[in-house]
Specification:
By secondary structure, the chain is α/β, with parallel strands linked by helices. The chain folds into 2 domains: 58 residues; 216 residues, Uncharacterised protein PF01937, DUF89, domain 3 (Rossmann fold, 3-Layer(aba) Sandwich). It is built from 13 helices and 7 strands. It is globular.
Length: 287
């Protein structure tokens, strides 16, 4: 992802919110401010915007002495989503096309994005509205056709809490289309509120997929930095679904095969790239 002008204010907001989470005051607040200002001053040395964002969050975690700055937020998002799970699954199953409904709910679940949207996330409102909202770009018919024929599916996960709605999608796929070999990729360690293997397990994803990590700790996908295991799975899976804005931003290097990007567009640079308005749900097959 190239660093766009809008990225600076977004990252500075993330810094303030991370400081709230670690309760940074006095000396700690000064250290974090100084360290992050130094990173902004030297941002030209970062080739990729995702790596720059990771550097920002890593220095905050290091100075605060925290292994997982967003853990409480992630756990709360997962609890909220699990509380909605029975109601949402019933609503999906009652739709004329449960697969399309599940795809919409999985896209709506992508609102659980502390990096792009902050700490106050209206999960229930977004999910309840999703079923009536059309995709701004809609390759769902082609995806369902490919899923029907597929034996194996790779889902590249994004955020904790969103994971519950990804689980729902995978359950509906297997209920509607039969058993598949499903693999779910997560981050190797905490970064913002991105899902780790622990977060995926809390969402119940281990019940419907083999969970493994991508081999990187970045708030998105940088394919050349991923593990050989992930790259092999990416090449061999019959269908690949990539969740979220950060993974869409990092699509460079993934053009070797078709990928379905399933997300809610949250900022100007991604809206322009996808030719939709911010706030739009998107399911698009690229290249």
């Amino acid at each position: 992802m190239l660093y766009a002008p809008e990225c600076g204010p977004c990252l500075k907001r993330q810094i303030q919110e991370a400081m709230e989470l670690v309760e940074a005051k006095g000396d700690l607040a000064e250290k974090i401010t100084q360290a992050t200002e130094e990173l902004f001053a030297s941002q030209d040395k970062f080739i990729d915007g995702l790596e720059f964002a990771a550097a920002i969050h890593n220095v905050i975690a290091e100075l605060a002495g925290s292994d997982d700055v967003y853990k409480e937020l992630k756990d709360d998002s997962t609890r909220q989503a699990l509380n909605l799970y029975p109601k949402v699954k019933k609503a999906i199953q009652e739709q004329d096309n449960p697969l399309v409904a599940a795809l919409k709910v999985a896209a709506a679940g992508n609102i659980v994005d502390a990096g792009a949207l902050g700490l106050d996330i209206p999960i229930q409102e977004a999910v309840e509205a999703a079923l009536a909202e059309p995709f701004g770009r809609d390759d769902s018919a082609r995806l369902i056709e490919e899923l029907t024929a597929a034996k194996s599916i790779l889902v590249i996960g994004d955020n904790a809490g969103e994971t519950v709605f990804d689980r729902l999608l995978l359950e509906i796929i297997q209920e509607q289309l039969g058993e598949k070999d499903v693999y779910y990729a997560v981050k190797s360690a905490p970064i913002i509120n991105d899902a780790t293997a622990e977060d995926a397990a809390a969402a119940g994803l281990n019940k419907v997929a083999t969970v493994f990590d991508v081999g990187t700790v970045l708030p998105g996908m940088v394919f050349e930095r991923t593990s050989p295991e992930f790259q092999r799975m990416f090449a061999e899976a019959d269908v690949v679904i990539s969740k979220g804005q950060g993974n869409f931003e990092g699509q460079a290097g993934m053009e070797q095969r078709p990928v379905y990007y399933l997300l809610r567009v949250k900022c100007g640079p991604n809206a322009r790239a996808l030719e939709v308005a911010p706030g739009t749900q998107v399911l698009v097959r690229l290249p």
